[in-house]
Design a protein that fits this description.
30% helix; potassium; nucleotide binding; 2 domains; six-stranded mixed β-sheet; NADP; Rossmann fold; alpha/beta; binds potassium ion; Pnp Oxidase, Chain A; elongated; binds ligand LP7C6HRI
């Protein structure tokens, strides 16, 4: 998140309404009474929001194994729904559900999870060291109807999460995500004696409850994109807008990011020299077709670098307008900066960056082996010079014609050393 977006999120958090326990219960009753919702519906949306928030922050490649601890009420039901969605997203969930509620809604959710072969683990059979077995633990024990102090077996389960959260290095322990309320916290006062769970993420549902003001973890999200105007108006709720089609929205300040640590693990299928077509243009067209089929956004967008007569480079994005055996074509206004550069110096470079497919095509004179080896498999098409495709008007096309090509496996070259 950019610092601009982070400060917007922080400002949004400050303005969001926080609910009392009573208002939260009352809103629930109104939604499921006069406003026509069913509990199944709301729980489905709540659980989906939790799964969406988890997936937004905890990337599958590094956090696969998820334990969901479910309580006896609707908060537990949200956890069961989240387990199903996380499974379909690609995570490997396990569920601990010690006090099952014998109602069709809950038994149906359990049957759905069983049909996905999601393991149910008894509380007493949970591994001694949760850190070794799980990357994420979802606390869906208690929500806004919690009162007093937790009774067995949840007292022990909560204590296990408390001990996990005191381990200093968050990289070495599972991330703890609380659904709606960190279980054991007072719904309005928060962690009253300071000995409760300290979740890394809180997913508030409908609107945050008062205790959420005491949440100091790095990720606070809001879910439950179903609040209709009669509720917003009656309770004077200020809630942030949800972006696009998202089921959750960050309401806390995003943690500041160390740019140098931002690094994806690029896992791409192996690309061997024997698999590359002899003609680079055929190879390009095959990859281009695959990029179009994969519905990449603007696969025809390419970075064009030109160099003026003093040797000073400039880059910008342009659209590919055609490609054939003679080269890559784009259009420009003859008065443009790039046209001016090209009139002085025909050398240019092109780069197609198809991140979602872990692929790049570089049409260039020179390249930087060091940076590209960290990235994707790349096809280099070398030594391009540009020629004008004259048109009668003030705009026209340029064609970059490369001379030869080779390919580089990027990170894969280290995995498949030949
Ligand atoms: N409109 C919404 O925002 C929706 C929220 N959902 C989720 O529902 C919970 C609230 O659910 P509810 O069933 O009312 O209560 P809880 O899950 O918090 O727990 C009730 C459950 O727990 C038992 N209990 C209470 N105190 C204790 C204690 N000290 N020790 C042991 N057991 C305790 C009680 O007896 C009940 O059995 C909300 O937070 C959201 O997560 C809906 O899913 C969708 C709509
Ligand atoms: K909870």
């Amino acid at each position: 998140m950019t610092s601009l977006a982070a400060s917007a999120a922080a400002a949004a958090a400050a303005e969001v309404t926080h609910l009392t326990q009573r208002d939260a219960a009352e809103i629930d009753e109104q939604l499921m009474g006069p406003l026509g919702f069913s509990v199944d519906q709301l729980m489905e949306l709540a659980g989906l929001s939790v799964a969406a928030a988890v997936a937004e922050v905890y990337k599958l490649s590094e956090h696969t194994r998820v334990l969901i601890i479910c309580g006896p009420g609707n908060n537990g039901g949200d956890g069961l729904v989240a387990a199903r969605h996380l499974y379909h997203i690609g995570y490997r969930p396990s569920v601990c559900y010690p006090k099952r509620t014998p109602k069709p809604l809950y038994s149906g959710l359990v049957t759905q999870l069983e049909s996905l072969s999601i393991p149910f683990i008894h509380a007493e059979d949970l591994p001694y060291d949760l850190s070794r077995e799980f990357d994420i633990i979802i606390d869906a024990m208690f929500g806004f109807s919690f009162h007093g102090t937790p009774r067995p077996p949840f007292d022990d389960l909560i204590q296990r999460l408390v001990s996990l959260s005191v381990i200093g290095n968050s990289d070495k322990r599972p991330a703890i995500i609380s659904v709606d309320i960190p279980s054991g916290w007072h719904v309005e006062e928060g962690d009253v004696n300071g000995g409760g769970i300290k979740p890394d993420m809180l997913v508030s549902l409908t609107a945050p409850k008062l205790c959420a003001k005491k949440f100091t973890g790095p990720h606070h999200f809001l879910g439950g994109r179903f609040v209709p105007p009669p509720i917003l108006n009656k309770y004077g709720l200020k809630l942030p807008p949800y972006p696009g089609t998202s089921m959750c929205v960050r309401i806390g300040k995003a943690p500041s990011v160390d740019i140098s640590s931002l690094r994806e693990n690029y896992i791409s299928p192996e690309l061997l020299e024997s698999q590359v077509m002899p003609d680079p243009f055929d190879q390009f067209l095959r990859w281009f077709d695959e990029a179009v089929t994969a519905a990449l956004r603007e696969p025809n967008a390419m970075a064009l670098t030109t160099v003026n007569k003093e040797g000073k480079p400039s880059s910008r994005m342009v659209l590919l307008k055609g490609v054939d055996k003679q080269g890559f074509v784009w259009y420009t206004n003859y008065g443009s900066h790039k046209a001016h550069d090209l009139s002085e110096n025909p050398n240019a470079a092109l780069l197609f960056y198809w991140n979602e497919m872990n692929r790049q095509i570089i049409v260039t004179l020179n390249y930087d082996w060091v940076s590209t080896t960290l990235m994707h498999p790349v096809i280099f098409i070398h030594e391009g010079t540009c020629s004008l495709i004259p048109k009668p008007e003030y705009w026209g096309g340029y064609r970059l014609t490369p001379r030869f090509f080779e390919f580089w496996q990027g990170q894969q070259s280290r995995l498949h050393d030949r």
